[in-house]
Every structure is written in structure tokens, then in C-alpha cells.
Amino acid sequence: PPAQVLVVGCGNSELSEQMYDAGLCEDIVNIDVSEAVVRQMQERSANRRPRMSYLQMDALQMDFPDAIFQVVLDKGTLDAILADEEAATLAKVDRMFAEISRVLQVGGRYLCISLAQAHVLKKAVEFFSQEGWVVRVHQVPSSGDKQQFVLPIFVYVLTKFKKVPGSAPQILEICPEDQDKPTRVESTERLLETVRDRQHYALLRSQLSKASSVEQLSLDLCSSESGSPRYTLHVVDSPSVKLSRDNHFAIFIIPQGRETEWLFGTEEGRRQLAASAGFRRLVAVALHREQHYEGMAGIQAELSGKVMELAPPGLPAGQQVPFLSVGGDIGVRMVQHCNTSPLSGEYVVEDVKGDDKCYFRRLIFLSNRNVVQSEARLLAPAPLPGQKKRRKDKRKPVPTEPPSAIDKSYLCCEHHKAMVAGLCLLESADPLPAPLSVLVVGLGGGSLPLFLHDYFSRAHVVVVEIDPSMLEVATRWFGFSQGGRMQVHVCDGLDYVAKLAAEASARYDAIMFDVDSKDLTVGMSCPPPAFVEKPFLQKVKTILKPEGVFVLNLVCRDAQLKESVLATLREVFPLLYARRIDGEVNEILFCQPGPQGPRQPTELLARARALEGALRQPGHRWDSSYVLADMLQAVKIL
């Protein structure tokens, strides 16, 4: 209250009068360039506010002595003056800032109320931080008044310090409306980015509060401590759902580790989830692996206030919004290993619980964290001989520690099943050639080459992997091992194929490409574009036996690029079959160099049955029915 306050560009605002009447402060000097405004305001406060004065004066050239005020208050004046970034405008602002700095005491504050357009905030922050001032930006809490601005209001609190010779560190802070304490930021750019995020979120909230049906959108809620994403929220509207009192709005917590599944990880899947849940608006919430969560109750307590800001219009007042999940829990995710590869970047190996209570081990590249690179099912520990199965004690907690042994007989990835099914296209009088030579480019966790090695007893498998870190991961975490019929070459697949092609020897019955692209800017994430260029495909054809099959896992979202790839493949391989994977972007292409026309479906069916018979020979410890069913389905599609 005893502070002497200067209000620059007061206009006819009631702010000074309200501060005076509320007893916040009384020694207030208001200045404005308009004589009419100053006269009007003097008349309004005459005899009512004796310690408050109004003066006609330009904030760019003030008549006050130096260091006379403890506070300079600016409500919208800077926003009005800095309407553009012309040189003359910036010069005006520099003069205003210099005058404010001159009349303000050391330790005093310049409080600037602003809508924080990027160029306005940047100018204020850069000017005063270079002068050695402490810069803090507060977001004004919204009042809940529906008539208020859509954009949030900010207050720059700029505290004057004596300028230290040399390069003193900048002190920049942000205090959002939902935080009690300010957060230090490292740069002006980061401060601007944080404010911009808040402005976008305010616009988003306004849009969601007025429209009952919007395009599906996603946003990250970040940890106030680390600043890293803690929750990803997907807002999904279902206009076709018939509205009743109790189905306006719900929150669905995606179990940990299952955010990559089609139902949760794609827009189409989430639309299906929202429609089947029966709510007009559903917010699907994904949990991040770097964060710790205190169960469903903890998540509900943490999110309840924030998700209500995304509620649809017409939500009845006081209505309880349900939190839903699969089985009522948040799932299990245990990170077993994380590291960084020079070629693949950051990656993580984690164990997650699936919807059938089985545990799965996954390899995830964090550059594309919603895609599972490799997956293997974990075997439940078998009881020891003679050990009786204990009755469940409901009072004891069920252990959540996942098993650790890899089930090598199970192919988790649907595209791997389809790739194995492609072996039914091999030309041979016998069910399988003896021996069967297979080249696999792309190791990942090793599930595909392991399966070929273990369940095709006459197969000799050569694997080419460019990243030595992946060989280490596959060996340590996915049960992969080399042996007499399994060899791994750590090198570039392009170089390996080119070297063999130079020797001009057709040596492989099957060649399989399951290699991801590190370039996320291309609309094709598998394989890298160089692997489907015509000169390289001709080299692949050179090392493939005339009756062999080339199997390619294609993941391409760019329709034009996909057509170009298919056209190039057809130029090299006369026979091309395509197998689409339901619910996935993957498409498995079977290419053959033989000049003969496409074989009849009956012949393919007979070959698949012959392969089935071979796989059911005594000594096979694998129940092959699920892959064989896939082979027969592939035959029908072909």
C-alpha cells in the first residue's frame, strides 16, 4: 500500500479507481496523452480520491525525476503502441522502455498486462533481460466468465536490478495459471513457446466448449516438474451416439503399453472405441513410459480438473464424469532396458501386459514411440516336477512381476505371419527345398529369423543388420542366438546384396526385407527408399533363385509413393502378390522372378497343405495351426 505507483496510458479504465477503493494502494499517478481523457478522469475522482492524480503526459517522454516510483503499471498500453514491427514503432517502444527504466527505482517493478502476442512479449523480454532485470510472466487465472476474452491474459513482472558489467545470466520465469510457483526457463525462445502453448490451449478449450462435434485432436499434458509429456489426451466426438443425460462425456485410460495397438493408437481405432463406449465425447488418455502413476485413483485425482476443461457443451451441471479402462486398471509396463544407438537413436525394451493376461516384450525406438519395432510373448514359469498348484489366496496381492523367458514358438507381429506364409510360393517337388536358404535383412528383436530357424529344420538363415546395438538387444533380451544354421552379418543390407550380386550367383530360396527407415520425413517408414530403387531390386533378383520368392514388408502412407514402389517392383519381378494386414498399414509383397504366369489357386492351396504336412512331421514341437491358417488365408487372397 505505501508504494508510489505510476499508471502509463491510463485511458478511462477503472483499474486505478478500483485499486484505490479496495485499499491496495492510494499514492497513484495516472498519465495519458489525451487531454479529454485526463479531464474526464479528474472529474470522476475529484473529492473522492484525494491522493490519486491524473496528468496529461506522454509515456515516451515523462517529466518525472529519476527513480521516483516503486511500481509502473501498464494495462494494454504496450500492446497498443507495438501494433507492428516497423522500425519507427520499435523506436517508440525503446523510448517508452527507457523512460520506464529511468523513473523506476532499483528493486521496483514494471507490471505490464498484455495478451502477449509473440512480437510484443519477445520485445519486452529481450529489452529488459539485456538490462539485467528479472523477467517473470504470469498467466492470469480465468474467472470462468463466459464473456471474457478467448485468449488468456498475461502479466509481465519485470523487476529492475542494477546492470552488472559483463554477461550476467538471464533470469526468465513462467508462472501458468494452474501452478503456484514459477518455473525457470532457459531462453527467450522457450518462454515464448510456453506462452504460445497456453494460448493455443485456450483457443482449443473455447472451440471444444462451443462445438458438440470437432475433428479428432490430440494434446500433451506435461509434468510441472520435468516439463516432459506426462499424458497424451485424444479428444474423440461421436455425433452418431444418441444423447441422453448420462452419456455426454467420459474419460478412457489406455492401459500402459497398449497405446500402440490399433484400437488406441490410430484415429480410426479411437473412433471405434468412442462409439462402442457409447459416449458423445470421449477423451482417451495415454500414459507415458517415463512417468510414474499411482493407480487409477491417483490418475483420476490428477486429471479431474484438467479434463473438465475439455467437456462438451450442454454437460449437465454437477454430473459425474466416469473414468473407464480395460479391466478397471492402468495396465503394467516395466522398462527392462534403455539405451542410445548411434544409428537407431534412443530405444527402450519394455514388458507389458496384454489384454489376455499374457506378457509381451517390446522394442520401441523413441523417435517413433507409437510403433512397436519388435515383440515377443513371454512364457509363464512352469511348475517344478511334483509341485502342486497352490490355491489362490485372495488376501495376498497378485504378483505383477512378468515372466522373463521368451516364447520362440509364437509370432506376435501379424506381418511376420504373412511373411512366413509366403514360403508356400516356393517352387519344389518337395514340401520344402533341402536345404532352404533364407536371407533376412533387418534383425530387430530377431523373432522372424528365430522362427524360421527353429521350425524349418532344414533352413539356413542369414541375417543382415546394420546396427550392432540391435544384435546385442536381440541376444540379451529376445532370446536370439547364432549357430550352425543361423549367421548374422553386421553391415548395410545395400552393401551386402550388392557384394553378392557382383559375384552373380543365385543362392537364396527366399529373401525377406523387414527393415525400417530412419528418415521420418518420407511417407514410407519401411523399407528405406534405397531398398526399392530399380537398380537395387535387380541386384536382389540376381541373388534370388529363379523359383525363389522375395518378401517385402511395405509400410507406406503416401498413396502416390506406394504406387511408384509397386510399379518399380513390377518392372523387375513378373509375379507380384500383395497381402494387406487387417487394421495395420503394413502390406506384405511377394515377388517372384519366374517367367511363368500366376499359378492357379488350387496349386497354391495344395502347396500350402504340403507345407502343413511337412511342419507336422514327428519331432516338431510347434503347434503350427495359427500360421497355417494364415497361409491358407494368404492363398485365398492371392
Automatic annotation (TrEMBL):
<dbReference type="InterPro" id="IPR051419">
    <property type="entry name" value="Lys/N-term_MeTrsfase_sf"/>
</dbReference>
<dbReference type="Pfam" id="PF08241">
    <property type="entry name" value="Methyltransf_11"/>
</dbReference>
<protein>
    <recommendedName>
        <fullName>eEF1A lysine and N-terminal methyltransferase</fullName>
    </recommendedName>
</protein>
<keyword id="KW-0489">Methyltransferase</keyword>
<keyword id="KW-0808">Transferase</keyword>
<dbReference type="GO" id="GO:0008757">
    <property type="term" value="F:S-adenosylmethionine-dependent methyltransferase activity"/>
</dbReference>
<dbReference type="GO" id="GO:0032259">
    <property type="term" value="P:methylation"/>
</dbReference>
<feature type="compositionally biased region" description="Basic residues">
    <location>
        <begin position="387"/>
        <end position="397"/>
    </location>
</feature>
<feature type="region of interest" description="Disordered">
    <location>
        <begin position="382"/>
        <end position="404"/>
    </location>
</feature>
<dbReference type="InterPro" id="IPR029063">
    <property type="entry name" value="SAM-dependent_MTases_sf"/>
</dbReference>
<comment type="similarity">
    <text>Belongs to the methyltransferase superfamily.</text>
</comment>
<dbReference type="Pfam" id="PF01564">
    <property type="entry name" value="Spermine_synth"/>
</dbReference>
<feature type="domain" description="Methyltransferase type 11">
    <location>
        <begin position="6"/>
        <end position="111"/>
    </location>
</feature>
<keyword id="KW-0511">Multifunctional enzyme</keyword>
<dbReference type="InterPro" id="IPR013216">
    <property type="entry name" value="Methyltransf_11"/>
</dbReference>
